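Lab notebook: predicted structure, single chain.

Context: the supervisor wants predicted structures on file for every construct in the current expression panel, including those that have not yet been purified. This is the next one on the list. No modifications to the sequence; it matches the entry in the shared construct table.
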Amino acid sequence: MKIATYNVNGVNGRLPVLLRWLEQSRPDIVCLQELKAPQEKFPEGPIADAGYEAIWHGQKSWNGVAILSRAGTPVETRRGLPGDPDPSHSRYIEAAVNGLIVGGLYLPNGNPKPGPKFDYKLAWFDALIDHAADLIASGAPVILAGDYNVMPTDRDVYKPERWLDDALFAPEVRAAYARLLAQGWTDALRSLHPDETIYTFWDYFRNAFARNAGLRIDHLLLSPALAPRLKRAEVDRDVRSWEKTSDHAPVWVELED
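Prediction complete. Output recorded below exactly as produced.
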């Protein structure tokens, strides 16, 4: 089974890119972020034509998350994160799919730092950690996939010294990610590529993609019940080079059935 996460950066404006990637990569389950579309504007028809059933949590202009599946109907188990400090933001959706619990998330950016946006990011992270603990305690096979807006270590960011004052690389945020992993979650991509330079995001500016000046901020975390099934974890880096593409690339794992 192949499970992916992709910050599509506007599901309608980049629909041709999304459909091209779905056809090329054929993931079984996909978590999307930054739909930037209200609930009624999600392109359910074209995605169904591509072979995927979907649930989504939309929001006009900003945020928005979805779960797509061609491996069985996604049965929604949660819409919104328990304890979300601002539930008006569409940042979390969860479903049971083919024997798995799939949580799709879009963690706040948090800039500028310091300030209320950074405080919101830390509070949201705390709520995620609390919910993640409950998921692990359930004993179910769970994957938490999405745009976490955190570079966990120096090797996850191009020229880390330039990011010391950014909310995506703040010590408090990296510490929160470490607390999450300490519950028993496996960072799939890093666990299989412990020493490689791997990025999932390249800014549109300053020729960042061509220079490989990127960040690793899109993560797939596997619960202890699921981690033993991990076979592969990769980034579809070439998608970032396509015309009118997102500034993120899709990231995916392959699990033993």
